[in-house]
Amino acid sequence: MVYRYVGKSVPRIDTDKVTGEAEYPFDFELPGMVYAKLVASPYAHARIVKIDYKKALEVPGVIAVFTGKDFPFKVGIYAADRDVLAREKALYIGHPVAAVVAETLEAAEKAAELIEVEYEPLKAVFDPKEALKEDAPILHEKLGEYRHAVFITPVPGTNIANRVKLRKGNIEEGFAKADEVIENEYYEPLISQGYMENWVGVARVKRDGTVEIWSSHQSPFAVRNLLALSLGLPIHKVVVHHMYAGGGFGGKAGLLLEHIPVLLSMKIGGRPVKLELNREENFHYMAQRAGYYFKMKTGATKDGKLVAHWGEYILDAGAYADYTVNIARAVTFKPIGPYEIPNIHIDTYCVYTNKVPTTAFRGFGMMEMHF
Q: By C-alpha distance, which of 364, 351, 310, 358 is closest to 154?
């Protein structure tokens, strides 16, 4: 048998990385492009009392300053829980509360430093177990009003963004038949994907309403679909240009900050807007892998059969969980792996805390559980 590809050398088509000709979003420019800079909250949980940006508007080259009041709606994928810019409250350190658009990056940075924000600090919660308690501060008081996918089950009045249950057989009878029972609890904090390239996005809105975005992402079709869904745009009016990306590891698989330069471009008549994060901002603004507490108990017989599995899985989703609510479903269904287990009892909680939002990282909840 003669193979066309197996056992044959395949020419590399990315030699432009070696020559320096490869173009990343950081390198990309458009005629008439302007620059955006975000202003971050220094508090993990605080009410926004007042934002004064008069001095920022006086900086030469500044086009406009926007706050959450300019975008009175929420965006999100599986759960629309995200403010474009923080409105009533800042929910984590680094939460963007304002955006400056200017002719140059230097002008945008200078203006951002001149914006004065008055905060009323609130009690914060950083541990998802603490966030589940009745006296915990509530991050999303209007959780019950948020749009969400039909397979997502938030619990209004709590910090539970999604509650997932899995039941099969009779768990008590299953453990009664077990010859060996192994029980343990595992913990992992939020972890940054640590990709080399900081996130960059360039967006413009054409006269016919078509949105174009060039950003650091892993999946152009996912970004297109999710951007259209989040902003209520017809999918044929969203064009995502794929460029080289300096790593992603799942962290750039969904919608990240693409909606911000798109909305800013809409506000200034469609001019191209570039939002470029530095390394510190990348840690503050970009979603990380969710932390977790996994408590599990598994029973087996001497002949090697698994007869029961009980689990309580608590995901630390951070301040926004529009992507992580679906990871909670993956975590619930993956622990049994390829095994036939007749008796299963699992409860999974996707919990809000006053930390940076979360998303996927190498396996969408599966790697943590398989470990």
A: 351
Burial 108-126 (b: 16+ CB within 10 A, else e): bebbbebbebebeebebbb
- In the chain, the amino acid numbered 292 is Y
Contacts of 27 (CB under 8 A, 6+ apart): none
Distance CA 328, CA 46 (A): 27
Residue 4 lies inside a defined structural domain of this protein:
no
Q: Are residues 166 and 296 in the same domain?
A: yes
C-alpha distances out from residue 201 to 46, 96, 104, 235, Å: 28, 16, 15, 19
User: What is the C-alpha to C-alpha distance for residues 326 and 79, in angstroms, rounded to an integer?
Assistant: 9
Tokens read off for 248: 């992603």
- DSSP letters, 30-72, are -TT-EEEEEEE-SSSSEEEEEEE-HHHHTSTTEEEEEEGGGS-
| Mean pLDDT, 10 residues at a time, the chain of 371 residues | 84 86 92 98 98 98 98 90 96 98 98 99 98 98 95 98 97 98 94 87 96 93 88 94 85 85 98 95 87 96 96 97 92 84 97 94 70 60
Q: Do residues 50 and 102 both lie within one domain?
A: yes
